[in-house]
Every structure is written in structure tokens, then in C-alpha cells.
Amino acid sequence: MCSFDRIVIIGGGHAGAQLCAALAAAGLASSVDLVCEENEWPYHRPPLSKGFLKSTEEKLQLHRAPNWFSDAGIKVHRTDPAVAIDRTEQRVRLLSGAVLPYKSLILATGARSRRLPHVPGDLLNVATVRTAADAVRLRESLHRCQTLTVIGGGFIGLEVAASARALGRTVQVLESAPRLLARSVSPEVAAQVLDTHREQGTDVRVGVAVGGFDVADGRLRTLTVDGMLQEVDLTVLGIGAVPEHALASDAGLHCENGIVVDSHMRTSDPAILAIGDCASFPEMLSGRHLRLESVQNANDQARTAAATLSGQLQPYVAVPWFWSDQGSLRLQITGLMPADGVRRRRNGATPSSFSVLHYVGERLACVESVNAPMDHLAARKLLEAGRTLPPEVACDSAVPLKQHV
User: Fold this and answer.
1) DSSP E strands, 158-315
2) Could you read off the pLDDT of 256-283 as tens digits, one per residue?
3) Closest CA to 14 of 79, 233, 38, 201
4) pLDDT tens figures, 181-218
């Protein structure tokens, strides 16, 4: 095959790895270069904030064995990130100086952890959780420290907090918003998450002002919370992520809260696609562009991209779903939470098991399930089929939701 028929994938995260699998299934993998910034073979990232932190014996969970890539004919470039895209010549330049020609280029560059302004990024006792190296460093620090301060009450921060509590550490979570997960879940679910963490012994404070960071000898020594100075041992930043689109921007691609793509994952350059955390795509119902950070989104967009590359255009119309494990709490969400929906509660077997159903008019738009996995599975099938149940039917906990599927 001519070198200019090659497919180049930039990014060895979940989206890039899943695209490799989809291309292999389509018989196109022998023409693929996979460019990875990290030295690791593509691995699953969700465990990094959970089980991986709790045991020094825990290994990375690889997407595929290393020999799978070579057997499929995929050339993997590890520890050699892309540094420039030449759209005119259709070439990618790597840090090593190597140049990869492409017929089709897929950007799966993901997102990077948001940092605190005016706080150095290389402090010994301040960590984020985005890569394997981040998680290994944090795990080593957790097994040495006594107390952990988590800044940010989002999913990653809360998962790390639960893992640290399981290790017996003293944990504090500081969230500036009036409630946890304010942009992601309903007030009812946020209240249950707060209660669960406090019951597990975590000191969770919401609506607080955090600042006044004092740095000395390469460490964060103190911070100020609501005007009060407090010492810190180990700090994790869980304040969100920003899309990694510097390569795309430098190459002149349209970027706005990510790399803008159409429903087939094509960017403003038809020879270049973008998938996963870095992609801003049109939502199927409203048409508005949004960006999702989830394994499911990476999987589905990889399949859409594979179809585009094989000439069998299939628009991305997947119903989003997410999950988060935080100690004894299992949170699962199907659909996108509407800003102006009507919420109805479906009780579970215990007070800590329930679902919140979101309706827009008569349409069921989203279901949040707390410790109710069967509700989640049924809700996914309902939403994927485009079906709606009347609230009085869906919220009747005497009848399993799956009976309506």
C-alpha cells in the first residue's frame, strides 16, 4: 500500500485505541500509524482514580496486548508526540523529527487537567489524575501521606477522595460551588453524593472560597479557605479538564471548546477527523455543539469515524451515558440532563437507591440512577429506542423498569 494511503491517529487514549480496533475489524488496520505521547501501550483510564490508587500491585489495564497492534499491522509510535500538522502536504511531524504522510488524519488528543492559575505545575505534593504517570505518582504519594485535600467536587476529585478514604487517609474536599457536581447531576443526586461521602468520613465543604496558596521548597505548604489559613499535606486538583486542541489550532482547523466536527466526525478539513474528549460535535436532538468526556463517547465516536474512513457514512446519534464509582456509591447517567426539565423520583430498594427521571414536556430525556444498576440498563434501552413512559408509570417502583422495555 502506498505511504500516502496511510491513516494516522494522533492520541493513544481510549478513542484512539478503539478506533484501531474498529479499523482492524474493517480490514483497514494495516495502513495505520498510532502516535502516542506516553510510553505506555494504550490503557483504560477510568481505573486510575479508583482501584489503581488503592494497591501498589495494581497494573494498568491495557486495551490490547502489545503484540495485537503489530499483528494487526498497526505501527505504534510511543513517547514520540506529534508537534505539527502540514495540511497542504498532508504530513505529521513528530518530536523525534520523523514525518508521517497521511491520506486521513484522526485527532484523538483528549483533554488535559485544568490547573490553578498562579500555582506552579511541578509542585511535589500537588497532583492531577489524567495519565498513568499522574496516577503512579499520586499512588506513591497517597501511601506516604496522612491527609489529602481535594480541590474540586467533580467526578475525578470525588473518586480520588473515596479511594483515599478506603486507604484510611484523612480527606477533605473543597468545592466552590453551592453543591457538588453542579453542572453534571441534579440537586437530589448531588445531595446523596454529599451524604455518602460524609458518611464515609470525608470532610466535604461546599460554597467555599479557596485561595492564598503559599509555596516553599517546591511544595504547597498552606492555602486559605474562607479566609482561614490551613496547612496541607497532599493536594489533588479535580477542577475539570480542557480540550487538547493546540495541534488543530496551529494547523488552522476550526476550534471552539474543542475541535469542531460534523456528525461524521469530520473537521473543517475533510481529510482530518476528530474524536473523543477533544471533539466538539452536534448533539442529535438540538444540533448544538457540545463536548463529552466519557468512555462511551470515545467508543461510539471511534465507530463513527471508522465508518467515515471506510466510505460508509453513519452519523453519530448515540445516547450518552456515564458512570462514576465513589466508594459505596454507584452513579450512572443516561442521556443529557436538560436545563429546564421536570424531575421525578423513582425509589429503589433502600433510601440510598433511587433514580431521578428528567422530562422535557412529555419526553423522557435523562435518567440518573444511584445504586440502581437495573434502572440504568432499562433507561438506556428506553432512550436508545426513543421510547417515553408516562411519569406515573416510570416512577412506580413496585414494577421493575425493565418490564417496560
Assistant:
1) 170-175, 203-206, 210-216, 219-225, 228-231, 234-237, 241-243, 259-260, 272-274, 279-282, 289-290
2) 999 999 999 999 999 999 999 999 999 9
3) 38
4) 999 999 999 999 999 999 999 999 999 999 999 999 99
Burial letters for 292-321: b for 16+ Cβ neighbours within 10 Å, e otherwise?
Answer: bbbbbbbbbbbbbbbbbbeeeeeebebbbb
Please state whether beta strands 104-107 and 99-101 pair in parallel, antiparallel, or not at all (unpaired): unpaired
Beta-carbon count within 10 A of 9 CB: 28
User: What pTM does this model have?
Assistant: 0.95
Place of cell 513528530: 94
Cβ atoms within 10 Å of 395's Cβ, excluding its own? 17
H/E stretch holding 296 reads helix 295-309
How many CA atoms within 13 Å lie on the side-chain side of 83?
A: 9
Reference 147, options 168, 127, 126; nearest CA is 168
* Residue type at 245 in one-letter notation: H
- Closest CA relative to residue 278, chosen from 267, 287, 264: 267
147 φψ region: left (φ > 0), alpha (ψ -120 to 50), beta (else): beta
Closest CA to 308 of 350, 279, 342, 331: 279
Helix residue ranges, H only, 121-216: 132-142, 155-166, 187-199
State how far Cα 371 lies from the chain centre: 21
CB contact at 8 A, 254 and 278: no
Q: Quick one: three-class SS letters along 34-80?
A: EECCCCCCCECCHHHHCHHHHCCCCCCCECCCHHHHHHHCCEEECCC
Cα–Cα distance between 19 and 82 in angstroms, integer? Answer: 18
